[in-house]
Amino acid sequence: LGDCAESDLANHPFLIKNGLRDRPTIVINLLTMWGNIAIYAELPTWIKHWDDIVENEEDDPEDVVALKRFVNADDEYRNLRLKCLPCLVDGPGPIRFLEPPRKPYPIITAKLPGRWTKHPGRHLRNEYLHPCLELELDMMVDARMRSVASLVKRYLVNLVMDAAILIEKPQAQVEEEPRACLGMCRFDRVDIATCPELPPRLEEGETVEGRDLRRA
Q1: What number is the average pLDDT over the span 56-84?
Q2: Average pLDDT over the chain, rounded to whole?
Q3: Residue 129's CB: how many other CB atoms inside 10 A?
Q4: Most CB atoms within 10 A, among 72, 74, 108, 142?
């Protein structure tokens, strides 16, 4: 939570300090009116530099082929193939009324555009920050998405939902292609009142005390 949703989570000092870049990672950052919803998953350790990922379709398993194509491709390719498979486990009537059929849905649409950023690995003082692939989705740009986000917030404490993040062929494509599951997560009766607030960013070389004085 915070006064406003944060962009560029992969470079937020607080999240770095707490291990976000300790290994290669993909982050999906949903910006809402009441804060950030961050879904993140560890990527394979062979991702060391974005430019050094070699596709080997003869020897790699299907999910590795799908992942290598995904990270090597352009934004349009990723937009068409990143999907979410939701499953409502428990929830009140208004949420159940909105429950979609259990099938994969594109995460990025015309009404919910996304912005991809490939953060390279880099050294920061005495530690190494591993590569991070970040997708930012602004839930506030569309009126319908704002309404859905407000409704979900209202009932989040009574909601249990599973979600799988997938790489799959585009919906209209007939030809099959390799698939992969990037990760799975569960929203389990999240109480917004107990969610931590993301501390404001520190300026380069700034201390926590100095930041607090600047904001006073």
Answers
A1: 94
A2: 87
A3: 18
A4: 108
